[in-house]
Amino acid sequence: RVCANLGLDPNRPIVEYALTGVHRFSAVSIRHPRYHLESAEVVVAAFAGLSRRHPDWQFLLRVHPIDPSAANGLIARANDLGLENVRLDDQAAYDTMVSVDALVCTHSNMGIEAILLDVPVVNVAIDALAGPVFREGMGPLFLDDDAVLWARAEDEVEPAIEAAVLDEPTRQRLREMRPK
């Protein structure tokens, strides 16, 4: 149903990025009001690179309900980078989660849902962007031994997504790391 609603081909890889919300009334978000959008721009750029290498891949962006205005800017950025096979995901989270091949997030609770549904997760936590936020009080959701692939630098995002989608030993390792 999600694929039909979003015009996706269920036989081709689908990768989703779930944006992190910023709670506007915290000291951390006041000091770092754009870290989530800057992280999203890194992911959109990675999607553009991946779409050049894997033209059959499909990409979804799910904005956080607290920040729906982020959608227009991210789609414009995707178009500027030549990423045409990207769509906004406005479907129910569970419905989408069972349809994607990998979820990309920045310490999102959707990552936990994906892990429980056996969907590989790439946690994009670029230290230069998100590091100060987590050190100053927001705290990371995932730890190093959780069942996620990490991308802590911009040049790690594309390889981590490729591994999550294409590398069966990596996917198996993530399955084995899931909570029992």
Task: Describe the 3D structure.
With 180 residues, the chain is α/β, with parallel strands linked by helices. Helices cover 47% and strands 13% of the residues. The protein is built from nine helices and six strands; from the N terminus they run αβααβαβαβαβαβαα. The protein has a six-stranded parallel sheet, with helices on both faces. Helix 6 links the parallel strand 4 and strand 5. Helix 3 runs parallel beside helix 4. The relative contact order is 0.17. The model has no long low-confidence stretch (mean pLDDT 86).
Order of adjacent strands in the largest pleated sheet: 3-2-1-4-5-6
Number of helices: 9
* Total beta-strand segments: 6
Poorly predicted sequence stretches spanning 5 or more consecutive residues: none
Distance from N terminus to C terminus (CA atoms, Å) equals 29 Å
Q: Describe the biggest sheet?
A: 6 strands, parallel
Helix percent band: 40-55%
Provide the succession of SSEs.
HEHHEHEHEHEHEHH
Shape: globular
Query: What is the mean predicted local confidence, pLDDT?
Result: 86
Strand content: 5-15%
